[in-house]
Every structure is written in C-alpha cells, then in structure tokens.
Write a structure and sequence with these properties.
8 helices
Length: 253
C-alpha cells in the first residue's frame, strides 16, 4: 500500500553563503584559530602603519601604548601557530606529486612553511620567557629563512596553478563559442566559467599575498635594513596580506 505522506527533499544543514546570517557566519569565523589570528594581524599592521607614518608624535604617551600593543599582539599571534606545522605535513602528503618538478615545488613550499611554523613555536617560548631569550635571535633568523623559502615555493606553485586555470578557461571558452554557433544551451558552461574565473581571482590574490609576505620575510632576514625595507612599506605589505587572508578565510568558513 502506498503511503500518503510525501518524501520531502533533504535540505542542507549549512545555509547558502549568500543568505547566511552575518552573526552566525561571524561566530563560525571566530571559532577558527585562523579567523582570530587574521583579525589580530589586521590590528597589528594597522598599528604599525600608524606608528611608521608619524600620525601620532613619538613624544605623545599614546605612541608608547601603541608600541606596547603592537608588540603584545605580535607575541599573541605566535601562540596561534602551535602545532600549525602539521597542516603542512598533511598538505605535502595529499599533494599531487606526479612529476619531479611538482615534488620539488611541494617540498620547497610545504617544507619551508612547515619548518617556519615549527621554529615559531620555540620563538614564542623564548619571547614568553620559558626558554632562554638568548636563543631568540638565532631562532628568528632560521624562522625568517624558512618562511622565505616557503613563499618562494608557494609562489611557484600558484603560478603553475594559474597557468592550468587559464588553460581550462580558454578550453571552456572555445566550447562555449562552438555551442553558441550550434544554438545549444550554454547555461551550464557559463556557470562553470564563472566559478573558474572566481577561482582564478582568488589564486591571484593568494599570489599577491605571498609576494607581500615574502617581502616582509626578506626585510626580517636583513633586520629591516636596505632597500624595500622601510617601516611604512613593510606595514602596508602586512596589511595587504592581512586583508587578503581575512577575505579568503571568511569565504571558506
């Protein structure tokens, strides 16, 4: 005997991104350590921009408070890196290592970043006072070099990915042109094209972020000396990186 009750389609428990309540989205964002870390990053580099642009005179009492705040936020951010090197181990394990070139780039990108996050744990311990602060300078130098190596690999990886996305985009455009000529429906293809272009934009933003972070890593290695190491330029590069990473994390949560 047939039942009179109709089976309702199963609805997703996660609401669409466009219709998602802002406060629920914000709660999910702040529940992730990367979400809190990026907000701290924005706070820190906004403070650095104020300090390096002389908006507040060095003799003003608020200037000293800003410097203390910036230093404490920087130390707080290091605590969020505890165990973060594990994500690079997992990324390396799941990476597509079908060619020698892919293996080399993945080792440079994930290996460099993994070493950076691992060493940063000891930098945090040194600055927190648990281990001798005499080791902090050497640890920071090792950390900066590992970070720079990781960004070099990451930039190379993203350039290769962008080339692949551009190739897929050109192939899809050709298919759409042929379909339009034949009078076929191209709604599905246009939707795919939109997603592909959105992915391409996000990958370009990630590339800009890596370049900005790499520039700061070079400045750290050179102790802020030399060309392209000015405080305002570094603070601006940090803010660019912070805003892009915040945007990416917001979309992903």
């Amino acid at each position: 005997m047939e039942s009179n009750t109709q089976t309702k389609p199963k609805q997703s428990s996660k609401p669409p991104t466009n219709n998602r309540d802002f406060l629920i989205h914000l709660e999910a964002y702040l529940a992730k350590r990367d979400g809190v870390d990026k907000l701290l990053k924005i706070s820190r580099y906004a403070t650095k921009i104020i300090l390096s642009s002389d908006l507040v005179p060095a003799t003003h009492p608020f200037h000293r408070r800003l410097k203390t705040f910036e230093s404490n936020v920087g130390l707080s951010r290091k605590a969020f890196r505890l165990g973060k090197f594990i994500q690079d181990i997992n990324s390396l394990r799941s990476a597509k290592l079908d060619t020698t070139q892919n293996v080399i780039i993945a080792l440079i990108a994930y290996g460099g970043e993994g070493v950076y996050y691992f060493v940063e744990q000891f930098v945090w311990l040194a600055k927190s006072g648990l281990i001798s602060p005499t080791h902090a300078r050497v640890l920071q130098r090792v950390s900066a070099w590992a970070e720079l190596i990781g960004y070099v690999g990451s930039v190379g990886m993203k350039i290769r990915e962008l080339k692949g996305i551009s190739f897929d985009e050109s192939c899809l455009l050709s298919s759409i042109e042929i379909a339009v000529t034949r009078g076929d429906d191209v709604e599905c293809e246009m939707e795919r094209l939109g997603k592909l272009r959105e992915k391409k934009l996000m990958k370009r933003l990630s590339l800009v972020q890596d370049v900005a972070d790499g520039l700061m890593a070079v400045a750290d290695i050179r102790d802020g000396k030399g060309r392209l190491s000015g405080p305002l330029l570094m603070a601006s590069a940090g803010m660019v990186s912070a805003v892009i990473s915040t945007h990416k994390n917001w979309l992903s949560c």
